[in-house]
Design a protein that fits this description.
It is a single chain. The chain has about 300 residues and is of the alpha+beta class. It is built from 7 helices and 10 strands. It has a domain at about 190-310. It has helices at about 40-55, 60-85, 100-110, 130-145, 185-200, 225-260, 270-310, and strands spanning about 10-15, 25-35, 35-40, 95, 120-125, 150-155, 165-175, 175-185, 215-220, 220-225. The strands form 3 sheets. It has a 5-stranded mixed β-sheet. Strand 7 and strand 8 form a beta hairpin.
């Protein structure tokens, strides 16, 4: 399938806080737990999280506290969304985890609720490949570098998560974490396919467990297992393609730097022009391959919609 040849001590203090309203809070009510500024103590937050993970119903005060904390995370998310829009990277998706997805993660992973970095998150889809994806990452890191807590980067292109690839940047607004997913368009389309199939064939599919009822036919001589294996293989091909395209972008950038310097390089003008021509031709071929991958991913998305409707 496809062309492979292209080669994260409790203190109480006055602080600037994020909550339903943003402003200076002169009353000593802010609580910092593991660096997170919230209106409830960290131990209470963790107790609420443990009850959620254990399937124990929250009492009314715990439910109120959870909703308050969600409001604080949501306000931090809105700050991140606004800053990204001003930067020129408006999020395509912005959300808080639902209680269902929060409980699912608490039960699936050995984390306390305070250890979850993506309770609030936004997504940015880059119009371009890994080169522009890296630039967006660097711009976002610079945008939040003056925050009290430094940002963290999880590059899921280096080690994918069951085929999922992207750059995740955890930024902090008043020490409240917000996850920013940075995807290329191809990475995004592939992830959307897996998300949709996970809704139809079982959420475990997203975590390497494969589809429910894997031998169920989805077409003549095509089972769920076979279809998903093909989608995973397509993801590997796309990763290889984007890696080679990144190398070409790097070479093109380096050539532009050399041309800008001039000097003794001018004696090699003919060679530089020839190299420029080869880079241009390779770029044109890669654009065609990228469009073919985009077309194939969209066809699979259409098939997912049909499966969902059936």
């Amino acid at each position: 399938m496809g062309d492979r040849s292209y080669c994260r001590p409790l203190i109480i203090a006055s602080t600037w806080r994020i909550g339903p309203q943003i402003g200076w809070n002169s009353a000593p009510t802010e609580r910092y737990c593991r660096g997170v500024a919230l209106s409830i103590s960290g131990s209470r937050f963790d107790r609420i999280g443990k009850k959620l993970a254990d399937g124990v119903e929250l009492d009314s005060s715990e439910q109120d506290d959870l909703e308050t904390v969600f409001g604080e995370y949501d306000a931090a998310r809105e700050v991140v969304q606004d800053r990204l829009s001003q930067l020129g990277h408006p999020p395509t998706t912005s959300r808080l985890k639902t209680t269902t997805t929060l409980v699912d993660k608490l039960q699936r992973e050995p984390l306390s609720i305070r250890g979850i970095d993506d309770l609030a998150g936004v997504r940015v889809v880059i119009d371009g490949g890994r080169w522009k994806q890296d630039r967006a990452r660097d711009q976002i890191l610079a945008l939040f570098e003056k925050e009290a807590k430094p940002s963290k980067v999880h590059d899921r292109r280096v080690v994918s998560s069951h085929g999922y690839r992207a750059i995740h940047v955890i930024v902090y607004v008043d020490r409240i974490p917000v996850e920013i997913q940075i995807r290329t368009e191809l990475q995004h389309l592939w992830a959307e396919i897996v998300e949709k199939l996970g809704d139809i064939w079982g959420r475990g599919l997203r975590y390497g467990l494969g589809p429910d009822e894997p031998d169920t036919a989805v077409a003549e001589e095509v089972t769920r297992r076979l279809m998903f294996d093909s989608i995973k293989e397509l993801g590997e091909q796309i990763d290889e393609f984007e890696s080679h395209a990144y190398g070409l972008s790097h070479a093109d950038h380096r050539l532009r730097e050399i041309e800008a310097v001039g000097g003794s390089w001018l004696r090699h003008r003919a060679e530089l022009q020839e190299l420029r021509g080869e880079i241009s031709q390779t770029h044109e071929r890669l654009v065609m391959v990228e469009e073919d991958y985009r077309r194939r991913l969209r066809l699979i998305l259409d098939m997912c919609a049909q499966l969902e409707a059936s």
